[in-house]
Amino acid sequence: MEDVVAHSSSDEHGGVCPGSRMAWNCRGAGGKAFSTLIRDIKKEFNASFCILLETHISGQRGEAVWKKMGLMVILLRKQEVNLVMVHIKVKSGSLPYWLLTVIYGNPQRINRNYLWDDIRLIHNEINLPWCLIRDFNAMLHDHERHGGSNSNRRGACPDFQDCVSDCGLFDLGYSRWPFTWKRGNLVERLDCGQSNLDWQIIFPTAHIKHLPSLKLDHSPLCLHLANDRQENKQRRFFRFQAAWLSHLNFTHMVNSN
Questions:
Q1: Interatomic CA distance for residues 171 and 245, integer angstroms
Q2: Domain spanning 2-256: CATH superfamily
């Protein structure tokens, strides 16, 4: 697991956090048009940093690519690891530090068991607001799959469900197309965002946007935080979680806001 500290500045309107963070499985990062694409996405969604998985580039070539993108970029190469977990400590304006863990789960279920143990280990060792995002390579629910044949049919992953329950995580939900991975006529939601209660209290309107896959098998995920003044207010919504009532600071948080 890699530890990175990212500081996010306030936006031009005085907001306490930038528009979004992005994570993407992208095998075409070395292409000539890729840097331009990332810059366009950054401009559209006010992204403060981007994490790219399965880039298949590194060294001087990788450094040259991310310098053209105009934002903080972390490149991860699939061939170097079977399981990737990037752990980032984020400071957004006047808000407290929070943790962002970006996941790349092994496609093989037997090799993915370590992922759930590592997530539980982080949960047991931290006391900060925490968000997890990206490619778990597993589904929480049976309905997060459509198409395909019976021979390649798979349903919800019990190990993933147990991990989410054990760590007290909440699905951040999503907007746009409901699936994030495609092969032929088979589509699945293998990428998602999860967070603990402390993070939900700080960012109660945060959500995930599924962006167009752009001919790749995985769609980019865009994590929109609360207080994003670039977002259309009519499209923002508040989601109450009953589990908030069990938090020790819930009453104080409500009274002070």
A1: 17
A2: Endonuclease/exonuclease/phosphatase (3.60.10.10)
Residues in the chain: 257
- Start-to-end Cα distance in the chain: 36
Report pTM: 0.69
pLDDT at 8: 44
Strand positions, DSSP E, the chain: 2-8, 20-25, 47-53, 72-76, 84-92, 98-104, 130-135, 145-146, 170-171, 174-175, 181-183, 186-188, 191-195, 207-210, 221-224
**Collapsed DSSP state (helix, strand, coil) of residue 37:** helix
Per domain, the residue ranges of the chain are 2-256
Q: How many CB atoms lie within 10 A of CB 149?
A: 9
Q: What is the pLDDT, as a whole number, of residue 11?
A: 35
Q: What is the pLDDT of residue 202?
A: 92
